Amino acid sequence: RQLYHYPDQDEQQRTTLPQQSTIRQQIREIDKQISALNHQIDTNSIPTLSPHHINQHLAIDTVATHIPDDTIMLIYTQLDDTITVMGLTQSGLQAQQQLATPPATIETDLLHFIDIDFQRWTHAWAAEGIDYIHKQLDTFLNRAHHRLHKLYQALWAPIAPLVANYDHIVIIADQQLHNLPFHALYNNHQYLIENHTFNYAPNASLYSWCRQRADKRQHNLGHNITLMGYRSQPTNLPFVTAELNNIHTIYPQAQIFLDQDATPQQLQKIAPTCRLLHLATHGQLIPNNPFLSYIELASHNQHPHHFSAYDAAQLNLHHTELVTLSACETSRSRIRGGDLLGLQWGFFHAGAYALLANMWPVEDQATALAMHQFYTHYQQISHKPTALRQTQHYLRQLSATNHQLRHFKHPYLWAPYALFGFN
Q: Residue 219, CB half-sphere, CA atoms under 13 Å: how many?
């Protein structure tokens, strides 16, 4: 998470292109060293805390038994130059269809929406300020709608009649589609989130294991609600404190660990007793080595500790109901052969069955508002996907009721939040 604001810099302060090239080379050399050290890690030191190992795969009929009766699972699989989608319900396989749009076209539209157009948005905000964003909001919104409609036509329109009667959608998406916000796909009139609730999983087997974990924990959940926030410097993420305090009003019994109290040691100590675990901090995706993606926690030397996927795997989350990673890009991962590589892997391996995470860099103020709304609804209805849909609807409605927040109608502000695992 971040503030979409940067201090002014004059030309003398800006990094020159030769300097950037040197820095990039240094980063590549360090990445090589990290990769070499990574191979030396004894993977046996990462405990398999569950009898159900994530790498096991289940037969499709077995998966079907774990799907609720109001739910359809859509499995998008990319093979060579085609994408096939399967619709699976409690009754078994309902349909299998090869999509007409080639993966390269879909990946281009996805790249433009999440990366290229998003960079235009954040750079415009940084360089010109929020007033410029408000003036150009229709242009930004039309561009996003164009991308999301093309993705809707390619990925959803062919199977729309199949899913029309299901309230809840589980998305299992291969390759780059794992990073696509299906809930924000746009049919030229409305977003899919207006008619369905969504959650995601890297593969159908993991979804089934998470369902079994959830069933076993119904009467064996932790008793603690833990809220951790780390800002590195208070000016970096000024809304983190308000976020934790607002959640604390919903759960007065919650324990708060802020800044220098939010240490890895404290997290490891409290994790086995947590029912809800909320982590609000900076997050960083490491694309070329996703297991080293991290969130920042405090350390004893006043410098941020990079709490990686490997660190997360050491936790004991076998009594948790929900882990919330309120930081940038905490859901972005690489999918290889149905396996999830990234921060999610660590928390699932540690025993979590439900994660609330973010698909791209999120704005600090919007995230604080979103988290308050989510827990408000969740406490009332105890259904995570519905609570999240109501939260996203609330953020969009702010654009109509608060003139200063009219940019909240853009999907970049309300759509990054997504649920993973079984919900």
A: 0
